[in-house]
Amino acid sequence: MNQAVLDLILANVRTPHERSGDVFAQIAANQRGTQRFVELVTRYGSDQVHHYMKELLVYTERMTRQLLTGIPEANTVLPISLTMMVSQRTGAHPGENQHQP
Is position 95 within any domain? Predict the structure, then answer.
């Protein structure tokens, strides 16, 4: 892991200790997923695993499209307000980049 990148990420969140735990949990989950994927390829072969990966994507698309047909067509306008504060470390002043509707 690139410690400088992790430090940069954690320096820009409100709860660095919790986010650090999240990052390490995600890394562990990815490592476990990699191990399990290798086990699948070892057990069934890359051609069969690739085939079923493609089938899963086709199935997912089919089911998503089916669910979307049940949503009525509509044009909806949602009011969105954005407030942004840039850190003084960047040279901006508090409130300088705030957008008011």
Answer: no
Provide the whole-model pTM.
Answer: 0.58
**Does residue 30 or residue 78 have the better pLDDT?**
30
Task: Give me the residue label for tokens 């085939």.
Answer: 51
Does residue 75 lie within any of the structural domains?
A: yes
Number of domains in the chain: 1
- Tokens of residue 50, six digits: 């690739």
Task: Check pLDDT > 80 for residue 17.
Answer: yes
Angle among Cα 96, 99, 101 to the nearest 5 degrees reads 150
Tokens of 56: 């899963």
Spell out the residues 6+ positions from residue 31 whose beta carbon is closer than 8 angstroms to its own. Answer: none
